[in-house]
Amino acid sequence: MGERVLLIGVYGMELVECGGALAANVAAGGESFATLMLCRERMRADVRKAAGVLGVQEPDFLGFRNGYVAVDEEHKRALVRVIRTVRPSIVITQDPEHSLADLDPDRRPAMTLILEALGLASREFAADDGLEPHPVPTIYYMTPSRPNCVVNIAPHWEQKCSAMDMLESQMEFSGRHWSEALAPGDAEALVPGFAEIGSDLERGRAVHRALDRAVHIYHGIGHHGHYTFAEAYRREGDFHLPTLVR
């Protein structure tokens, strides 16, 4: 049975990075939602296309300013409103440990803001918004430093890859970056025929496909797991089980 799953992301690509779990939830009869704090105007059309591939509801773009994310009333109200409107049973968001050392701007204040909003959504904060408080749901941290569970995404692997392909502005940026950052021999080892690929867009797609495949195999069958491709997560708090499970 599916859940109401809400991704609270900082940047647009996070929607695809946990796209396997979001797609699996939809396939199980649930609804998957996404709200993104910082997403460039050009990127938004790409993210909408990716969401359509994954079966995610129309993404909500909060329009925060790069470099100015703050743990203040305005930003808290915006996130609390999303949580109370969607009323998720599960929230997926960035990993606090990983975001602490991440040099992407805004990740550190964004993480504190997200945790504050999750706590405040069930309390009397911003009661004048006209929405009923919503209790803190189950939280999963994506791409964690220390995962404690994985999700089978093998049935949704090609769906996830197709969604990543939709992020054309990101793929172009990645293609330029890796063309400059990788030695020719290293690029060729990663993607055979890399030098012959004719555009930054296709170079970015090819490298992302190779990297994503490696990462998801590593967390799946590469760890002697039950799944060929798996997304790694860390669930906040203990697992509460009526009986032991395999």
From TrEMBL:
Entries under Pfam families matching the protein: PIG-L
Species: Sinosporangium siamense
Protein name, per record: GlcNAc-PI de-N-acetylase
The UniProt record lists the keyword DNA repair: no
Keyword Zinc carried by entry: yes
GO BP: glycoside metabolic process
UniProt keyword annotations, A-Z: Zinc
InterPro entries tied to this protein: GlcNAc_PI_deacetylase-related, LmbE-like_dom_sf
